[in-house]
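Notes from the 1:1 (GR / supervisor)

We went over the backlog. Supervisor wanted to see one worked example end to end before approving the batch request, so GR pasted a single chain during the call. The sequence is below; no edits were made to it. Supervisor asked that the structure be written out right there so they could see what the output format looks like.
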Amino acid sequence: MIEVEQWRTTSARNIDIENSNQIYSVGFFSSSTTVDARTSWSENYIRKICSSVIDVEYCREDATLSFDSTHHAFTQLASVEIPAGRILIDATSLQVPELLHLLRMLSEVRRPFDILYAQPTQYTKDEKKPQIDEVSQFDLSDDGTGAEFLPPHIAYGLNSTMFVCLGFEGHRFGALMNSESFSSNSIIGLIGVPPFSVGMENKALSSNYTYMSDSMMGNDSSFIVAAANDPLYTYNLIEKSFKSCEYTNRSFCIAPIGTKPAALGAILFAINNPKAGLVYDYVRKKKGRTSGTELIHWWRCNVTG
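Structure output shown during the call:
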């Protein structure tokens, strides 16, 4: 079981990358998603504070995780040799599938680790679109292959309860609702409040409003809030919903399509509770999708049990 033991935060302005010391033996990040200022910042930083850096990428087609282009089946990750010493996971660049399998691997071999996340200053608006159209203001990702379960966290998708971490991309929530594979009649939507910066919660609400309204027509749906950068409280909310489903013998699925900290809460919960399904839509992040590098978060995690 993975437990978060410590959470600390500082401003990126307070970190002198060039004069930072090496404190980790190995860092895991993804070069394929270095698409904006904060992912470039995190790459530069981890290369300074880690003795070695491993480039990670998940292949959906054969469910493998590559470490510096060497592929490993997700079922065999526990046999991968990891350097001794402290481990750093860069959640800024790593996406949900990579984070899931990396954290599962470290849980299986019982290795403690730290998670780093660089929070953006703002998300980039699509200036080509009318600004009165709140739903389409943000064009942050290209559509992927569509929502599907991430192995091994596969559950029954029909007539289940779906816990959805919502962000600025309402089309992702809409595609999930309209998917034939996940015809859920019970949706719990999580909105990031308080957000990364003042006013962002209004953009998230307006981007998802149409689909939120549709989901509440004839469905057992509700919407709750947790701070956009708080994986711990998100974890607790997911746990409460999961226990309620266990009591009524309903299948439970989580769709982490909002902020990365919310996704971390979802991933940690799924690893600790294998009966929970985990759904992802494999979108492709666009270059320049955010601007600035604001707060830097570290979560220190231990593996118990």
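Supervisor's comment: The chain has two domains: 2-122+289-303, 134-285.
Batch request approved.
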